[in-house]
Design a protein that fits this description.
Length: 309
Amino acid sequence: MTEDPAPPGRSPCPDDLAGLSGRVEGFEIFDTHVHFCAPERFDYAWGAREPESLRLADATDYRRATFGLPVGTIVAMEAVVRADQIEAEAAFFEEQSRIDDRVRCMILGTAFETRADMRELVERVSRSARVRGLRLLSRYARNPRFFLETGVAGLIGRFADLGLICEIGVWPDELPNVADLARRCPATTFVLNHAGKPDIAGGRYAPWAADLAEFADLDNVVCKMSGLVTLAGAHAGACGTFDPYIRHVVRVFGADRVVFGSDWPMVEAKTSCAGWAAIVLSALADRPPSEIRSIMHDNAARIYAGAPR
């Protein structure tokens, strides 16, 4: 059973760090979704459409943006660079880890539609201690179902053998496709980015909620609580907008299969990293401290193995 979303603006959002008071104690936040960008070095798929976002965003900037927020571990998330720049982006992430030693893991991009050597690339990057997985995105694909092709799904099915997880970003109506892939690759752990991108701005809650619940029935899937503020349009300024979405994610996945991600620097279009963390914690105010710790730290430490627990 799903609940209907609250009317936008029902309650005000908590103020950034003030909204975290008493909710993050005895642990540090594990931020699983941070985009480091360097437009002078890389060509980004979204650059032409969002030229205002083309700015340097490195570990020094993230440290400033999260000052006062108790982040202990950072996952560097690929930012959709050109297909031939994937390994160069990995080197850029290594540079960020030298700037800030909290950058302990990275997720790299994929280019199954344009690179014939993806199998070799996957095996090569899997040897890096910091590479924890690769990400599939339907948004920029010619065929949004490309990951269901036999050769691609077969390689994804080997991720666990290579010590990799599979991050995946799709639109809500594509959730059944991801469920199909997860069933075909039962040994691979899938991390659904941005909670499956519900259409919060358009108020299309019910279809997303039903498909997400069905997806959550699979044992090898995890949901990332990230990116929702950029999906809310004009409703992003009120916490009540997000409460039903956040609560539904935790209800269907359980507190042991949800992780937190800031989606920095994209989050700053609507709020701060601390503001997003406060929104999540406000929605889960009735949850016990042990579940909050699981969502904000422990689950990610387990899933992104090799990071401190």
